[in-house]
């Protein structure tokens, strides 16, 4: 008898009901999409006048430069957030309270402040104390601070979710805590948390759009600039469609790269054999300990 411990297998009536609900949902979604497309046509959003602007090479050069600015900020922020996440995550796992508690306070503070507030403080607040920062660095630092704090919690949760036997096996072969963390725990935690890490990087990529508020010339800023051109009928919707398509393409590309990296990591022989020597050593020690115990028990019985 097959079944699931989480839910009962649906019967014929439930299956029929699920099919009806699925069909109705598809019809409703298609109806909403059709209504939106009809309203776009009815309001002239697909007219030649509104799309004429995007027939110029100079406009696409601007879009390309804005996309490059978005990717540049994302690349710097992504690397910085991962580095900061590792530093804060390891600090949260420290055995020393004088390290763990201040790091915990820093993480909670950084997670509580919105990214946009960070950007505004860095770009408009620092000049008040005679410290000036370009819009690029304000965007990058704000993204690093917020996403780094989130990734630190992801890494900490990944390490703490591992079986305690992994850590004990490392200590059994003579590794110190730094070696156990670097060689055993972190590699496994990263593999386990890879989908969450990639999802947070996708959020980082999309949050670069907040830079338009502090006049960073990224993709959304350029789309808003092009969409406000009154000479071409203020093509805001066409600009948003093009910018949204580019954002979707970048996110899909990032997800594809992450998927390939994860698949390659799973097939790597080094990854597959990371824990095998430690587990073998631990099993050998357990067998030896059991043998010594049995030997002592036999000797005690013989003496009696």
From TrEMBL:
ABC transmembrane type-1 domain boundaries: 67-258
InterPro entries reported for this sequence: AA_ABC_transptr_permease_3TM, ArtM/GltK/GlnP/TcyL/YhdX-like, MetI-like, MetI-like_sf
PROSITE patterns in the record: ABC_TM1
Compartment annotation: Cell membrane
Gene Ontology MF term list: transmembrane transporter activity
Flavoprotein listed as a keyword: no
Keyword Transport: yes
One Pfam match: BPD_transp_1
Top-level taxon: Bacteria
Family: Belongs to the binding-protein-dependent transport system permease family.
Protein name: Amino acid ABC transporter permease
Protein source organism: Microbacterium saccharophilum
């Amino acid at each position: 008898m097959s079944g699931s411990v989480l839910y009962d297998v649906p019967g014929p009536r439930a299956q029929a009901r699920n099919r009806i609900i699925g069909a109705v949902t598809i019809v409703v979604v298609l109806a909403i999409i059709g209504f939106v497309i009809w309203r776009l046509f009815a309001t002239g959003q697909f007219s030649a006048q509104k799309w004429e602007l995007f027939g110029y090479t100079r406009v696409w050069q601007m879009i390309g430069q804005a996309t490059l600015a978005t990717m540049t900020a994302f690349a710097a922020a992504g690397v910085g957030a991962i580095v900061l996440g590792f530093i804060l995550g390891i600090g949260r796992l420290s055995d020393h309270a004088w390290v763990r508690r201040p790091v915990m306070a820093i993480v909670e503070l950084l997670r509580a402040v919105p990214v946009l507030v960070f950007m505004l403080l860095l770009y408009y607040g620092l000049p008040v104390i005679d410290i000036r920062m370009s819009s690029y660095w304000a965007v990058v630092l704000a993204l690093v601070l917020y996403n780094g704090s989130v990734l630190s919690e992801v890494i900490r949760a990944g390490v703490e979710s591992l079986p305690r036997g992994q850590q004990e096996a490392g200590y059994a072969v003579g590794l110190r805590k730094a070696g156990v963390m670097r060689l055993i725990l972190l590699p496994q935690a990263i593999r386990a948390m890879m989908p969450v890490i990639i999802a947070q990087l996708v959020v980082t990529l999309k949050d670069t759009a907040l830079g338009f508020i502090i006049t960073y010339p990224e993709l959304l800023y350029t789309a808003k600039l092009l969409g406000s051109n009154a000479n071409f009928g203020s093509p805001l919707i066409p600009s948003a469609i093009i910018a949204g398509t580019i954002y979707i393409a970048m996110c899909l590309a990032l997800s594809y790269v992450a998927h390939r990296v994860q698949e390659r990591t799973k097939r790597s022989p080094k990854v597959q054999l990371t824990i095998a020597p430690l587990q073998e050593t631990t099993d050998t020690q357990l067998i030896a300990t059991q043998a010594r115990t049995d030997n002592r028990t036999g000797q005690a019985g013989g003496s009696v």
